[in-house]
Amino acid sequence: MTRATVNLPAASNRWTFLVGKGMGALLSRRVGLLSNTEHWRRRTGRIQRSQLRGLLRRAQETEFGREMGFGSIAGRPDEDILAAYRDRVGIADWYAYRSRIARMREGAQAGVMWPGLVRDFAQTSGTTAGDKYIPVSREMLRSNFRASLDIFANLARFGVPLGWATGGKILFLGGSSALDTSAQGIRTGDLSGIVTPLIRWPMSAVYLPGPTIALMNHWPSKIEAMARRCLDQDVRIVSGMCSWGLVLMERVMQMARERGRRVETIRDVWPNFSVFIHGGVRYGPFDPRVRQVFSGSSDGPDLPCRLELYPASEGFVAIQDRPGDPGLRVNTDIGLFHEFVPIEEIDRPDARAFACDEVEKGQKYVVVLSTCAGLWRYVLGDVVEFDTVPDRFDGSPGDGPARLRIVGRHRHFINAFG
Hints:
This protein is α/β, with parallel strands linked by helices and 418 residues long. 37% of the residues lie in helices and 20% in strands. The chain has an eleven-stranded mixed sheet. Strands 2-1-5-4 form a four-stranded mixed sheet.
């Protein structure tokens, strides 16, 4: 691929640049594979069937796997495995799995939907009916770790030297890292709290805001504490939701002015800030404000590098893989099986579902996941459209890897259009 032209400030003399150098060497093969778009165009269908087969075999002795005949389905050939899986397992939302998840989380029961004891549950706020608890297995943590490495691999593909990136600080804007632990040792909290303890040395040497501030759950107080902590740091990368990133950067600028410094843009405080990693919401409405903070004008220059993500508590769905292109490439080889249901069919009992290599451009789909934490054909709820589609399993040609854009939430479409 053609790399973006990323003009970055010079590297510092901090020893931590060696962290990025080592990471770059570790990821060199992955960078090459991610850049091989023909591989993903041709192989996505087989890769996804292999992922599904692996999930079914791993869970075949669980309570759910025995009920659904996972062992038998896993033995079907690639040509038949999707139809067999869809025939036995229906599309379901969280409430269909609520009682099983309660037994896993509250009763600490092993082998219900995923083998072994799942010790971590991400707590999310339901839009209509309270909190939901999403299982996060060891395999899911590994899946998220692999996705995080792909973030750095794609930065390298975009022309960001990883040694330069770790020569300064990387600021992560996440939820509270505090976890509630039950008498049986089951941990519940924000996904950030589950994954933040996994940030260990040497990455901890470049990580901000640090464990103490990460524990805070009152966002206004947390923003204030982060601003104080980061004001005099060499922040080079910010990762988080656009809204909170903007609130923090504006507070950092204000705090610097209160200390008598002349500040017009965030670069007056963080002169090496050049990379913004963001996700969770559509970026377009935030673009003018980000440009204002970065360059001093709402239609001024953008950051040298932006990378958009599609993360969810249920699994890391997609990552932007082309600079300046809003399409996000689906993560097809990290332990997730993706399906997509036409928006107009999502509430029908006979709704059709399509794998990555079965979708069509121009159609709105609801995302459905089967995960390495025991969610099976689970309605994620986001509505997406595809910009490029891979070759079909039957050999019909596609035009690239599976790349999608988030266009809304399915309940919003149902409410608007019936």
